[in-house]
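Run Putative restriction endonuclease domain-containing protein through structure prediction, thanks.
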Amino acid sequence: MTALPDWMRPPRAEGWFAEDLDRLPQAPRHTELIDGALVFMMSPQRWWHGHLVTMLTVALMEQVPAEARVGHEMTIKLDQRNRPEPDLLVTTADFDSDRTWFAPDEVQLVIEVISPESAHRDLTVKLRKYAEAGIPHYWCIEDEDGVPVVHVYELDEPTGAYAPAGIFRHHLQRTVPFKIDIDLNGLTPARTNVAGRAIGPAQRPRRTDAGPSGTGPWAQATLRRALVSAEDISVA
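Sure, done. The structure for Putative restriction endonuclease domain-containing protein is below.
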């Protein structure tokens, strides 16, 4: 049996704490903390997942109000033992180039794109933890024959749990946490069969220029980025 590297051993009997993530330079780029255990996302990411996250980032950047920003590859410090990294989030925090996490009360919306290896965590563990932290809106997006389907949840404050607010196919319109109008079919290219013919909905042209929120450079940079995600390995 191969011994764990020293840096993968918890520094205390209680496990890892949220602030420990900032002191692990050897950890993989995408490392989360769930219930005091490190979760590494290391396996190859599907092109569909990465393309969807990129295009959804751009779509949201074009529509967020001036006081909000779209973020990815950022963690949320839910409590001392939980610091997940969602695929996307919308925050009201002021921009600070040195920060590495957001507090729950700075986050309006969290989005997770479901993959086979993350389905249980996204649909049960994170669904509960984001709600307990008081984040008002949560989207889970699944791949339905190449087309994104968005499961929308809203926080029910009396119970402190998420309540389903709708399942959206083809087109998503919301008024909270801000006015959102997204052509879901346009977020991913149509799949093709062996003859090269499209077998999914045709992709509609989308804007890639800046919207009223003045996010042009961010949007253009996002389109050029390769987003990495993967199979999860937990280290308690």
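The helical segments are 47-61, 119-132, 216-224.
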